[in-house]
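Kindly inspect the following:
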Amino acid sequence: MIDKVREIALKVLYEVDKSDAYSNIALDEALNKARKEKMDITQRDIGFISEIVYGTISWRLTIDEIIKKYATIKIKKISLWILNILRMSIYQILFLDRVPKSAAVNEGVNLAKRYGHKASSNFVNAILRKVEKKDFEDFFTIENEIERISKTNSMPSWIVEKLLQDHSVEQVEKICQNGNVKPQLHVRVNSLKIDNQELRQRLEKEGIQVQQADRDDFLVLEGAKNIEGKNTFKEGLFTVQDEAAGLIPFLLNPKPNEKVLDACSSPGGKTTYMAEKMKNQGQIIAWDLHEHRVKLVEKTAHRLGIEIIKTEVKDASQYEEQYKETFDKILLDVPCLGIGVIKRKPDIKWKRKKEDLEEITKIQQNILQNCSQYLKVGGELVYSTCSILKEENEKIIEQFLAKNKTFEIVNLDCIKEDFFEKNVEKEKFIQIYPNEKTDGFFICKLRKIQAKC
């Protein structure tokens, strides 16, 4: 008898590998299909499926090393179905204490019988029965620091090597460990419709446990299932947004009746936060490269009751003279490798390559250089990424300032919020590293000044 819950997880993992799909999209599609087929799956089942999918993807490197240890053939020659059966079963054995090893082995073998043949099920059975938690513990004895950190945290060695160029071994280990922490669910209170206290009461009536986040505009939700199905969400009373991500529009600090550009706006979390800060007064021009992503911004704004956002399909890396010195404030949350949000999007570890860094930094440089010309004298611009690599962050700013003498860095040391005191490294730039609470972000605020004669 096949366990339908594990079978759904397997199909998601297979789709991620076969079609290079994003895990969150593949998971949503699989769960929607299960609902349409009226499969009897509970919220607890959905939680278990999600745990297997995200956990298996996050720990893939470490798990594959254990498969290599016991497999008699190379991983590349194992069928994707069987490989993912092995991966998800080993994940349960190593990291899910509530799942007995016998259950993980037996269910893996049953799936192998359906998605392979008799030899496949014997192969799976032979490997899974050998796997023990000690296989993982042995990685901690590796002497080479890059290899040890990589295998004990399932982090690509090129990322570990990059981080070690700028941080101590202890710091890099902590960053990589936090890449595997289950992310908290933060939501931002829509101040246009409700206050913090009233939203907390409404959420608690919907059966959700609520805690105050470090910042007043944010709450932490626990035990929240199907969040988009809640009436409070449909009514536009809040937006799902990481608390650290919310710092970016907060630091830009747009005012009512200003004209603001969000040049890389999708899916709209930061765009709509700016609109709320502006009390829905003024104008925000929101660009993104693709029409379907622009529509996400429009959908979010409509749900929240925001009317001042005008969307356009636009490539921010291409200069347009018509926008020269048009805006009071500009937000550039530029495309990046996303190393700071790995715990939320574990696919990043396997989709990003070392050689991608050169290409993405060129795009970042172009966006900053071109869009900076759209800022009025005296106006302010925030450059941000959800990355923690200096090539995408400090070095971009340093190169820009070397060529643009009419810009200066705005000192943010004056901000005394608790969140800053607890989580933020403040120098010329703000770098938040992934931690138990939030994702990792880089933020720098620039001001355009009058050219000197």
Notes: Residues 356-372 form the longest helix (17 residues).
